[in-house]
Amino acid sequence: MHGSANVNIMIKAARKAGRLLVKDFREVENLQASMKSAGDFVSRADIAAEKIIRDELRNARPTYGWCAEESAEEHGKDPTRRWIVDPLDGTTNFLHGLPHWAISIALEHKGQVVAGVIFDAAKDELFWAEKGEGAWLNESRLRVSNRSRLIESIFATGVPFGGRSDLPQTLQDLARLMPACAGVRRWGSAALDMAYVAAGRYEGFWERRLNAWDMAAGVVIVREAGGLVQPLREGGDILSDGEVICANEPVFEKFAGLIRER
Ligand code: IPD
Ligand code: CA
Ligand code: CA
Q: Which of 69, 88, 89, 169 to mutate to test the pocket of ligand 1 (most atoms within 8 A of CB)?
């Protein structure tokens, strides 16, 4: 399966940044002795990866806008299109030598995500989708799982770290969901959590307090794999609220009912 010119540009940028990050990831292990230098090294790697992606995308499509984690937002001459980029999602895993992190690149057109690429460079898994064209993992078609019983389903989320104020809310979510399902995972990369829902590896994902770049590519990948993706707050907007809930269709209502119950 071959994507459009835009998707090919996104894949090229993700692979190029991925080569750099894989090299740096190997290096991080040698730096673990000094926590401070490992932290500085990772933030430099993150910024360098974003620069590679920015150069590739902006050279190929100079009129599109730019919204990314490590640099200022830029409005393009074309106000209807922008790139939404997280050069390294799962930074804490990366810093700790855990091979679970990804590059996330999305293209938004008139407020809708129309293409997404999530590249897990350490495992060489490239998840991508284009609106109306389906979702793919490398060369294979992606499809959400068809499990329909909550008690057999696995869900993923992110739990607040370092004293964030949304801990009680997350604990309430977990208290309602955990007894009703087969398990909850916290793997540390929201982008890969969404890619894994698309791949049918788990049934659903929800998280609060995210940024647009954590979710944008995942939104189109899960939808194109046949899943439902909604704002957590009904009637809200996923990217601007920074909250999302997604799952395969058979479990969505039961799952969302528990998480949204207040
Ligand atoms: C983080 C990851 C994590 C989520 C955090 C994000 P980063 O992104 O997606 O899974 O729980 O809220 O900030 O900082 O590694 O790019
Ligand atoms: Ca992120
Ligand atoms: Ca990041």
A: 89
pLDDT digits (tens, 9 = 90+) for 108-166: 999 999 999 999 999 999 999 999 999 999 999 999 999 999 999 999 999 988 888 88
The amino acid that residue 215 corresponds to is M
* Beta strand spans in 90-137 (E): 102-109, 112-120, 125-130, 134-137
157 CB within 6 A, ligand 1: no
**Edge-to-edge strands, sheet with 204-207:** 183-185, 154-156, 204-207, 244-247, 228-230
Mean of pLDDT over the chain: 95
User: Would you place residue 222 in the very low, low, confident or very high pLDDT band (cuts 50, 70, 90)?
Assistant: very high
210-248 burial code (b ≥16 CB/10 A, e <16): bbbbbbbbbbbbbbbbbbbbbbbeeeeebbeebbbbbbb
Q: Is the minimum distance from the CB of 90 to ligand 1 under 6 angstroms? A: yes
34 pLDDT band (50/70/90 cuts)?
low
CA of 158 to the centre of ligand 1 (A): 8
Q: How far is the CA of 179 from the centre of ligand 1 (A)?
A: 26
CA angle 112–115–119, rounded 5-degree value: 130
Q: Which domains are delineated in the chain?
A: 5-141 (3.30.540.10), 150-260 (3.40.190.80)
